[in-house]
Amino acid sequence: MKYPNFKDLILFEDNDFIVINKPPFLASLDERGGSGETNVLRLAKQYSDDAQVCHRLDKETSGALIIAKNPEAYRHASMQFERREVDKTYHAVVDGHVIFDKLLIDLPILNDGNKNVTIDRAEGKRAETIFDSLKYYKHYTLVECKPITGRMHQIRIHLATQRAAIVGDEMYRGKEVFLSSIKRGYKLTKGEEEQPIMKRFALHARHLVFKGLNDQDIVIDAPYPKDFATLIKLLDKFDA
How confident is the model at residue 220 (pLDDT cuts 50, 70, 90)? Predict the structure, then answer.
């Protein structure tokens, strides 16, 4: 994989924080077992010596990610995440025509530490997400997701419980989107195997609000990466 120039990812920077638009397929931190592959933390440390990643996004998830440039900033951001004071908004494309109107999903999540995440009312930790449908297509829905807690795979598993799995999210039975399924009369050339429009699940950290060390709000909007933008453009054109 060709890694981006870290500077090109920066959406915001001051003396204490950097916020980047994380590309898909780039891990936030060193993964367990230390594969040694490039990740956000390593790129950030090359840019700013004391950089620390303040939270994480799944490897396939794109979007706004906060990096602290010094220990005080890291503590300041960590406390906001702990107190659930960071306002996080994600966009997801899900299977089906799904009507969500400020729907609160409050289902506890159990993470056994092996990337195996389940809903478990007895043993799970509290997990809350608010969902709103933003745009309806014939076969899909663009959904706004606001996680109140920050459990692993929270948005993905909460959507799956509503029979609205994120497209391309094989772990939670989300199906890939193919152009042939939305474009009438679409024909493949002989012998060609059709590729999905997106080669990952369609989840993007779109909007973020947190406080800097001066207690002023830092407001971030992260544009869609190319693959997510292409999916939306094709749905607008062929599935509206």
Answer: very high
Amino acid identity of residue 50, one-letter, is: D
Give the residue numbers marked as catalytic.
Answer: 58
What sign does the CA torsion over 130, 205, 25, 234 have? positive
Q: Give the 3-state DSSP-derived string for 55-110, with helices as H, strands as E and coil as C.
A: CCCCCCCEEEEEEECCHHHHHHHHHHHHCCCCEEEEEEEEECCCCCCCEEEECCEE
Q: Report the alpha-carbon distance of residue 171 to residue 218 in Å, rounded.
A: 34
pLDDT tens-digit profile of 66-115? 999 999 999 999 999 999 999 999 999 999 999 999 999 999 999 987 77
Q: Is the separation of the CB atoms in 45 and 29 below 8 Å?
A: no
- Spell 56-80 as b/e; 16+ CB within 10 A means b: bbbebbbbbbbbbbbeebbebbeeb
C-alpha to C-alpha distance for 180 and 176, rounded to whole angstroms: 11
Chain center to CA of 136? 20
Residues in the chain: 240
Helices (H), 31-174: 40-47, 71-82, 154-161
| 132: helix, strand or coil | strand
Question: Cα(48)–Cα(159) distance, rounded to whole angstroms?
Answer: 37
Q: If DSSP codes are grouped into helix, strand and coil, which group holds residue 43?
A: helix
